[in-house]
Design goal:
With 261 residues, this protein is α+β, with helices and mostly antiparallel strands. The chain is 29% helix and 7% strand. It has a three-stranded antiparallel beta sheet with strand order 1-3-2.
Length: 261
């Protein structure tokens, strides 16, 4: 995690010397910035009018206020105190450290080269490179819990749809037919009593018949198709990861000058 270390110097020469030592101790040139407060430098060496000084301070403090608000957030007391001190500083050195250890080394180098402490010298032109030490800060402990539930989802199914189809069929059928024919036979014999008894007017008939096909359709149920739902259960192991914030508490020696970032 990148951490910002800020050193306020009442002499620009001390600030330049601190930058040179930082670079010689292995700090990346792109992570070390130095800015000169020309208004404050002039104020150390000569008298200037109050009106000019007030106007210049306002312009400087506007920029400083934004910078320290980014560091302190809603802590207006610290923002105002450190912004005011920075406006009076001759030079400001900012180091973007890549680790806690690197930030500690940067703070020591700034201290050794004359960076000042606002809190210990509130009436003088002294500037803090330990800005956040007095600010209230907290770390939220966040812990994730795994919650596993169930819900029904559609995975498919089956649908029954009936339709009528036709197909040609044929059957062989044997039919019988009766026909009446007239036969005449020539005879020459004496009439018998039976013949004489039948010798009178009358009629004889014989009916002709034949078989014709009779077609009838009979519907029968030959199969039943139905839908049935079968329920089965299975065990499934859910694997995931959850996160939790862990905070390490370290004691800081009161003689150490640990920079605030």
């Amino acid at each position: 995690m990148t951490k910002t270390v800020v050193g306020l110097f009442n002499k620009s020469s001390e600030a330049k010397q601190a930058v040179q030592e930082l670079l010689s101790k292995g700090f990346n040139d792109g992570n070390v910035d130095i800015s000169a407060n020309h208004t404050a430098e002039t104020n150390h060496t000569a008298e200037i009018s109050n009106n000019y000084r007030s106007s210049a301070d306002t312009e400087e403090e506007n920029g400083f206020t934004k910078f320290f608000k980014n560091l302190f957030g809603d802590d207006e007391d610290n923002v105002e105190r450190y912004s005011s001190a920075a406006a009076r500083a001759a030079s400001i050195v900012t180091v973007h450290a890549q680790s806690d250890d690197e930030a500690e080394r940067a703070a020591d180098i700034l201290d050794d080269n004359g960076a000042s402490d606002v809190d210990n010298n509130p009436g003088n032109e002294m500037y803090d490179n330990n800005m956040n030490r007095d600010a209230n800060q907290s770390v939220n402990i966040i812990e994730e819990n795994l919650e596993v539930g169930k819900r029904n989802v559609e995975t498919g199914g089956k649908r029954l749809r009936s339709r009528i189809v036709e197909r040609p069929v044929q059957e062989e059928l044997r039919l019988r037919e009766e026909n009446v024919s007239v036969n005449r036979n020539t005879v020459n014999r004496l009439a018998t009593d039976a013949d004489l008894a039948a010798f009178k007017e009358g009629e004889v008939e014989m009916v002709e018949t034949k078989e014709v096909p009779v077609v009838n359709k009979q519907a029968r149920v030959v199969e039943e198709v139905s839908l049935e739902k079968n329920v089965s259960e299975r065990n499934e192991t859910i694997k995931d990861t959850v996160r939790k914030t862990e905070v390490d508490v370290e004691n800081i020696d009161e003689n150490d000058k640990t920079s605030t970032y």
